[in-house]
Amino acid sequence: MNSFSGRFALLILVLLLGAPASAEDWRLATEQDGIQVYLSSVPGSKYQSYRGLVDINADVRTLVALQENLRVACKWIYACAEMRLLKYAGDDVWLYMQTQLSWPLRPRDLVLHVTTERSADGAVVRHLEAAPDYLPAVQGMIRVPRLSGLWRMVPLADGRTRVTYQIRGDPGGSVPSWLANRFVIDAPLETLRTLRAVAERQPRPAPQ
């Protein structure tokens, strides 16, 4: 698999209900196992944005590698059923993703345009934007019409990484309010919890 194919596996994410917000009114919704999840109302939308924060005992390079392997990334991204590379062009990548969600939701699919920025201090930011018209509709799938978000990975002095995962979107179709409210908690919490578990099992790189 192309080493770039997954680097935007971040996905992903996913999906569906959540975007970055520069001036949103974030409120802490839950804090579990060292992971904080914040929510924010979105004007004109019935879906809330979510933001998950966690410190992971792994360096940025390790986390980037886990995102660059699509097969592995789909295992730690909440509700991911399939993910594959559509196009790679330098710091821009287009990904296709299908979700596996609980009844009564129908499966969704998503085309993501992901752009990566790297800073001199070693931080990596990946911007996510839905590109629903990039591919024709897939039979049996509801195409996610709107999504924006980011992954931010900032190195800490002790070798850990502070990770932010933030999403805002519209899943398309009809979603019961109780399920939407559960999703915006479960998606960041489970994604970051599983990513942390996988990352902290990886061998630490030798000091340079």
From TrEMBL:
Q: Gene Ontology terms, cellular component aspect?
A: cytoplasm
Gene3D superfamilies the UniProt entry points to: 3.30.530.20
Question: InterPro entries from the entry?
Answer: START-like_dom_sf, START_dom_prot, START_lipid-bd_dom, START_lipid_transfer
Please state the span of the N-terminal signal peptide per the UniProt entry: 1-23
Q: Which GO molecular-function terms appear in the entry?
A: lipid binding
Keyword annotations for this protein, in alphabetical order, are: Signal
Q: Which PANTHER family match?
A: PHOSPHATIDYLCHOLINE TRANSFER PROTEIN, START DOMAIN-CONTAINING PROTEIN
Which protein, by its recorded name, is this? START domain-containing protein
The organism named in the record is Pseudomonas panipatensis
**Phylogenetic placement of the source organism:** Bacteria, Pseudomonadati, Pseudomonadota, Gammaproteobacteria, Pseudomonadales
